[in-house]
Design goal:
Helices cover about 35% and strands about 25% of the residues. It has 9 helices and 11 strands. A 7-stranded mixed β-sheet has the order 6-8-5-9-7-10-11. β10 and β11 form a beta hairpin. The longest helix is centred in the N-terminal third of the chain and has 19 residues. It is globular, with a radius of gyration of 20 Å. Bound molecules: magnesium ion.
Length: about 300
């Protein structure tokens, strides 16, 4: 099947509900932006062996790629609108792969109310996928990394470290709740929207809690104290760390959480369940404390 036939069969159906896509039949898409809104745009690229293991279900690869972009939209408080996709696969391009990849996208499009608006398919020695997601936000309302103030509380959604622990299990061929979290992040899109008029700063945790908290500290010109004993852990993560205590650092420096870290003024409470993990202070940098005592950290997070 040639490229045009593949696009018509597998990708055009993902675009048909979004008029701006022109059904992938023209040279580019046309986006209508509602009066008083801004476009929020983010891009991620992933490649085999670096971001996903060879043999991974193509539907999971597609979902994770879409969801990591949705997580970035969430961190800005944006509502998902549409996305553009580039697929690079070794020759001959496997129709089964494309079919399964498109199936994953179709499922997540429904779940997260987003549509394909355009893209490209090419051949390449290594599988690489890139996705650019567009979201909408009322003008001037985007959440930024730069607004945290001394005294603000630091909060996170969900639980931390599951994906990093899950990657270890996935490498051993295991399947459990942790590997599920590694393969399928849960972007906090609704929470991001709810934080719009509430949070003083926000970021999504993709490369490790401490490293991403460090980005907020730097952008906001503040210090952050994070309390180890307050970090939210799933039951599965707790059990794994109880058995292998040396894995504890993955909770605060492992990647792929895709939870939101946000700050709120001292007297505010989060508009949804979230965990208070620390406090913004004057100065710079991130400190990890255990029962009030700073503990040394070998590695802040994942660096690309
Ligand atoms: Mg991000």
């Amino acid at each position: 099947m040639n490229e045009f036939a593949l696009i018509r069969k597998y990708f055009a159906p993902l675009a048909e509900a979004f008029p701006g896509s022109l059904n992938l039949s023209d040279d580019a898409a046309i986006l209508d932006i509602p009066e008083g809104s801004q476009l929020v745009i983010t891009k991620d690229a992933i490649s085999e062996k670096v971001h996903f293991l060879p043999g991974t279900d193509p539907a999971l690869i597609a979902k994770k790629l879409l969801r990591t972009n949705l997580s970035d939209l969430a961190s800005m408080g944006a509502t998902p609108l549409c996305y553009f996709l580039a697929v690079a696969l070794p020759k001959p391009i496997s129709e089964d792969f494309i079919a399964r990849f498109a199936e994953g996208l179709a499922e997540d499009q429904k779940q997260f109310s987003i549509h394909l608006a355009g893209g490209d398919t090419i051949t390449s020695a290594t599988p690489v996928f890139s996705l650019t997601a567009h979201g909408l936000i009322p003008k001037g309302k985007a959440l930024r990394r730069s607004g945290a103030k001394a005294g603000d509380g630091i909060y996170v959604t969900g639980t931390l470290g599951d994906a990093a622990l899950g990657l270890l299990d996935a490498r051993e061929g295991k399947k459990n709740a942790l590997t599920e979290r590694y393969h399928l992040p849960q972007p906090r899109v609704n929470q991001g929207v709810e934080l719009r008029n509430v949070a003083s700063s926000c970021i999504d945790i993709s490369d490790g809690l401490l490293q991403d908290a460090g980005h907020v500290a730097k952008a906001s010109n503040v210090a952050m104290d994070i309390h180890l004993e307050q970090l939210p852990l799933s039951q599965e993560a707790r059990e794994k760390i109880a058995a292998q205590p040396e894995l504890l650092p993955l909770i605060y420096s492992g990647g792929d959480d895709y939870e939101l870290l946000f700050t709120l003024p001292e007297d505010a409470t989060p508009p949804f369940p979230a965990t208070l993990i620390g406090r913004v202070g004057k100065g710079e940098g991130v400190r990890l404390l255990e029962h009030g005592k700073e503990i040394p950290v070998q590695r802040l997070g994942y660096s690309h």
